[in-house]
Amino acid sequence: MTDNARARRLAKRIGRIVAAAIEHEIKDPRLGNVTITDTKLTGDLRDATLYYTVLGENLDADPDFAGAEAALESARGVLRSKVGEQIGVRFTPTLTFVADSIPADARRIDELLAQAKEADAEVARRATGAEPAGDPDPYRLDPAEDETAEDETAEVDATDEAEEPR
């Protein structure tokens, strides 16, 4: 078994090697907008999982995940050979490609935040000009009760001072 620090270092290196090979050496046009986002390597250094995302041609176009997946599957052997040449370990790890869900999750979170903002704006709109349901200060005492409460505390203070030895 290897330590986790070595596995993390090799995972980063494998991710860089695969990304460079996709960008410069693999001539498949379906891989033009593929980005390697993360790489995980098992502790025994036998299996590497590479997470990727696909960008659309422009902001309005949907990304071609199916084409990118097929292109990565067809280039898996070449990419594994490149990794084996450059990392210098006894056993070259198998490569597994997984579509990264982070962009879709981020989009969903943005939509939820926009909905929450709209709901807050609606509450703020309804709150303008609204009056409290009861007394504005429910803890306020009547002025007559205030005077009696002050008199009682003054009497208690006076008795406390008289009882204290000097």
UniProtKB/TrEMBL annotation:
Q: Is Protein biosynthesis given among the entry's keywords?
A: no
State where it is primarily located: cytoplasm
Task: Name the GO terms of the biological process aspect.
Answer: maturation of SSU-rRNA
Task: State a single Gene Ontology molecular function.
Answer: ribosomal small subunit binding
Question: Which Pfam families does the annotation name?
Answer: RBFA (PF02033)
Please give the residue ranges the record annotates as the region Disordered: 118-166
Q: List UniProt keywords, sorted A-Z.
A: Cytoplasm, Ribosome biogenesis
Compartment(s) of residence: Cytoplasm
- Gene3D superfamilies assigned: 3.30.300.20
Composition skew (Acidic residues), residue ranges: 144-166
Question: What's one GO-annotated cellular component?
Answer: cytosol
The entry assigns this protein to a family as follows: Belongs to the RbfA family.
Q: What does the subunit section of this Swiss-Prot or TrEMBL entry state?
A: Monomer. Binds 30S ribosomal subunits, but not 50S ribosomal subunits or 70S ribosomes.
What does the UniProt function comment say about this protein? One of several proteins that assist in the late maturation steps of the functional core of the 30S ribosomal subunit. Associates with free 30S ribosomal subunits (but not with 30S subunits that are part of 70S ribosomes or polysomes). Required for efficient processing of 16S rRNA. May interact with the 5'-terminal helix region of 16S rRNA.
Please give the PANTHER family that the UniProt record associates with this protein: RIBOSOME-BINDING FACTOR A, CHLOROPLASTIC-RELATED (PTHR33515)
Protein name, please? Ribosome-binding factor A
